[in-house]
């Protein structure tokens, strides 16, 4: 940019010099304004005009519902992570949590991250446990206030809880739009803090974004 700026300055000076010397004093015809006794007209400022969004423009929205391959629907709440990176989820197995730092429906890039408890002592096994038997090709659907989109399961694998940090690229805004669903899985050991692993299901966006 600096090199381009230096090359433009001499050209600008040359053009300005040419323009100033192109016309002789006799060729200049100044415009005069007649003097009248009337007061100048009052200028009225017009209100600003704001462009409206195009009809085809999609405004991203957070997910409100997750439909599992079986047809079961889980309401989705907003979930945030603490300083240690732990995601706070709804207390009930009947609801899922959408990570506030992840993508939304309508975003072109990045992962929509949704998680839920696989079970609880008081409620038993939750609907998300169905994904423990997920296979490639299964269809998950996310719905927001006005949008809906299908996602086809690409992979489902158990990841040791201690290795979740290695999934950062998968959960980021880098790459194409996708859905990542996380829940507990593997062996349960109460003395060692619960489940050893997390089930991570990755589903790729399928078809166009729909308006509801």
Q: Would you give an account of this structure?
A:
- By secondary structure, the chain is mostly beta strands.
- The chain has a domain at 65-211: Sortase (Sortase, Chain: A, Beta Barrel), CATH 2.40.260.10.
- The chain has one helix and ten strands, in the order αββββββββββ.
- Strands 1-2-3-4-9-10-8-7 form an eight-stranded mixed β-barrel. It has a two-stranded antiparallel ribbon with strand order 5-6.
- The longest helix is centred in the first third of the chain and has 20 residues, at 2-21.
Can you tag this structure with a few keywords?
mainly beta; 8-stranded mixed β-barrel; two-stranded antiparallel ribbon; 1 helix; 34% strand; disordered N terminus
Give a summary of the structure in a few sentences.
This protein has 1 helix and 10 strands; from the N terminus they run αββββββββββ. By secondary structure, the protein is mainly beta.
């Amino acid at each position: 940019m600096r090199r381009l700026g230096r090359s433009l300055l001499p050209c600008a000076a040359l053009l300005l010099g040419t323009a100033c010397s192109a016309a002789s004093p006799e060729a200049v015809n100044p415009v005069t304004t007649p003097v009248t006794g009337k007061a100048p007209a009052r200028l009225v400022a017009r209100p600003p005009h704001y462009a409206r969004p195009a009809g085809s423009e999609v405004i991203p929205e957070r997910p409100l519902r997750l439909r599992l391959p079986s047809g079961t629907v889980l309401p989705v709440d907003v979930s945030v992570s603490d300083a240690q990176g732990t995601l706070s989820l709804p207390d009930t197995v009947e609801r899922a949590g959408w990570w506030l730092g992840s993508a939304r429906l309508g975003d072109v890039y990045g992962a929509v991250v949704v998680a839920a408890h696989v079970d609880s002592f008081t409620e038993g096994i939750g609907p998300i446990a169905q994904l423990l038997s997920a296979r490639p090709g299964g269809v998950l659907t996310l719905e927001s206030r006005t949008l809906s989109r299908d996602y086809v399961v690409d992979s489902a694998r158990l990841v040791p809880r201690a290795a979740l940090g290695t999934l950062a690229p998968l959960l980021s805004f880098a790459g194409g739009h996708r859905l990542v669903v996380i829940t507990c899985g593997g062996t349960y050991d109460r003395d060692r803090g619960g489940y050893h692993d997390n089930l991570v299901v990755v589903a790729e966006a399928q078809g166009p974004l729909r308006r509801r």
